[in-house]
Structures are given as structure tokens and as C-alpha cells.
Fold this protein.
Amino acid sequence: QLQREADALRESLVLRDETARALSGLAKGRVDSRFVRSVLVGEGGFGRVIRAFDLETGEEVALKHISLSKVTDSVLRQRMFDSGEREADAAKSIVHNGVARVIGLFFEPDGDVFIASRFVRGRTLRRAMSDGLLRLEWDFLVGQIADALAELHKCGIVHGDVKPENVILNDDAEGRPVLVDFGSAGVEKSARRRFGVAAFTPAYAAPEQKRTMFRSVGPPADVFALATLALELISGRRPTPAPAYSMGFLRRAAILRELKEHGADEDRASLLAASVSPWPALRPTAAEIARALSKPPG
């Protein structure tokens, strides 16, 4: 049905002599000439995500709409566009089963930005966690997410907002976790620096991420968020933030005890406890976590 509606829309555009604009890609043109929007699938942070049909590729996509209506300075807006375009271009080069493929970044005449990525069918990890069954396979899930993050980091991209809501368990790949909502990071980081709005989720954000709102953070921030997600998946709750850096080692011991109580072996418990260290340099890399969790426990 959606395909028939798309074909009808194409014919209508031909009659209105707008075929070239519809089929040549947006090239900083109007989103509605390429994408047929369907339903809203989520909101948060800087914008909302809409399920849509791409007339050019014939695929379903997730369109993230980032509203920049507050940006009246044309020079600043261009800088934000350039920052987002660089990051989106890097994201488009990533080919990984655990990363939602980015199609492109598109600009509207009013200054708003849309980023299109592959639509992933399935439940969010947040929704799936409610039944408690995923605890039995936490190491597989976290290891797969870590592997996807390692690919992003290798390409110079920091996700910046790893959380259960941004992981989809793909119905088309036997529940494999897929990271979504990262390609617009360049625009959001620029907007954050300008307006002081947090484009991350505080409950999963690393200490340095909360302190350096106006500067970029590195891959260790993603590792912290991933470990927080893992601890919540295993124990049913997120770890309590350390009240001060001096309490970091005491907090690590408490996390180790809790993980062992929930069945994690010594090596994996130590790995996750180190991953939520308040000191970025003491955290393992996403690649190290992926390698460690791919091995049988013991």
C-alpha cells in the first residue's frame, strides 16, 4: 500500500513538473519532495523521529527532525550545518550490522535539519528490559553494542547518548541490537555549545560529559554509558553516582559485589566496574569490552 501511494505521488510530481527535484536528492532542498512521512515514532532531546518512505531508494527510513528555529545568525547556522554534515558524511561510511545506516543530512530553507537513517523494525531495549528475560543474555547484548560502538569510534564518531531507548532489537536479525540516533551529533553538539542545552541523557552520561557541556567528549563517555546500561540490564537498576571523585574506588567495590550477586564472573564484573570509573583514562575501550564479552565466561 505504501509503495502504491509513493508511486501515485511520483506521478503527481511529474504532472507538476517537479520530477527532477523529487528524484535528484534534496541537495539542501525540501524534505517533503523526497520523503513521504508516515508516523511519529519518538521525541526527545533536540527533535523528533518520524517513520517515512524514501522515494529515491524505495526504503523505509527514520527521519530525525532537529529544530533550529532559535538560530537566527546565518553564519552560526552555517557552522552548525557544516559540523553536522561532516559527522553525517563520516557516519554514512559505516557499514555494521549493529549500526543503523545513515542515508544523509538534509537542510530545509527555514534552517531546520533532517537526518535520514535506515528504519530498524523491533522493540527498543528499554521496552524489552521490562520482562526481565534479557538478563540471561546480557553479555551477548552488551558485547554486540560494544562492537558497534567500537566501529563508530574507529571512524571518529562519538555517539554521545547511549541508552536503552537508542538500542533497537532488530526483528529482522533475530533480536540483534542496533544502535540508532547518532548521525545528527554534529549539529546537536554545535547547538549545545550555542544554547547550553544538554543533548545527552543525564542518567547515562559520564561525569566529564556533564562537566564539559560546551565541549566535545571522547569515546570513554560512550563506554561509561554502555556500562551503566549493562548494570541496569543485569541488576534492574542503574548504579548510584559517586558523590565525589574520591569515592570512586569505594563505588567500584560496591558495583563489583552487586554484579557478582547477580551471577557475573570476576573478570566481567571487574570490566564493567572499571567502565564506570569517574576517570576516563581508567575505562577500557569499547573494542576491549566487545572482545572480553565474546569469550565464554569463566
